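JOB MANIFEST
job_type = single_chain_structure
chain_count = 1
residues = 340
[input]
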Amino acid sequence: MAQTKKVKEPSIVIRPLGRFGGLDNLHLMLMVLAVLLVALLLVVSYGKPILVLPSNNTTSTSNTTATHTAAQIKAIAERILASYATVNSSLSLIPFISNISSMRVSYLPDSGAWYVSLLAKNPVNNVIFSLAFMINDTNTSRITPLLQSARPSQISNNSVVSSGVVSLAGKYACSNSTPTHVYWFIDPYAPGSVQSLINASAIKRMYGGSVNLTVKIVIGASTQQVGSQVGLANALYLSKYALCASQQSGFSAFASNLNAAYAGAYMSQNALAGIASQSGLNATQLDACISASSSVLSTQALLAQYYNVTYTPVAVVDCHYLTIPQTAQEALCYANSTLC
């Protein structure tokens, strides 16, 4: 087995999504939103009627005093949704659970603003709920969320292009389009990351050689916290085993066995070696990969910075589409329709 040695790894701040990828926090949030929705309906029921001029999302609003068209507002709304990825809460999942095909925009002449509404689905229980916000017509950077409790501090140039798919501004499709590449970023000790390896192995099995999925390690806050207790070199073994196991045909068995043994706490090298052996991994290939992994982790940290990875687990499909494990298949279908 590889000998423990002191290494200095580049660090990157990664915000974990939470247990099961943060979805249980989202579940709680949705219940709060439901209460807010009821309150909003009561206000609308007893409040002053508002004149709303509907739009078909594609035509100009020449019969109103609006300075923007519905199509322009829809494009701005897609950027607003993508910008929620930077909000430091479970609301960062909004870009990936929003159904932009359900988006409706209407101009409100009395307020000089656009009303935007769309549907979203809670991945935990598949409950459909509504999202809504107002966009000022003369200053589209003025946004008023009607149901969400927070708004993005800055609107990015990224945009939600389909359910579970965010197009990354300034990033382009991989030069080699066959097979379709998937970068699977994890901070292994971050909540949801080890569990996401099950999703990754399932995609590998489902698409075979048509998809080149590679696990990318980022040494984020969760791994660093474990490292402060047991030593960073020891904490990094989970990263190195996950990385190297993903390169072997026994990755699916390793992901399953690791999930069965992982309890959200530090895992020693001996424990990981036992799981690798139980999963039928090639020990010689594994040891060689682990011994050479320090330089690989440094390169992957730079890749995470390039894609501005701020939470894990998360995936980048075809070098320019951001998604989460639960919607990775949707992103693959969007990037390459021949896969679906």
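[summary]
The CA atoms of residues 199 and 326 lie 8 Å apart.
Residues 1-14, 18-28, 30-53, 56-63 have pLDDT under 50 and may be disordered.
exit_status = 0
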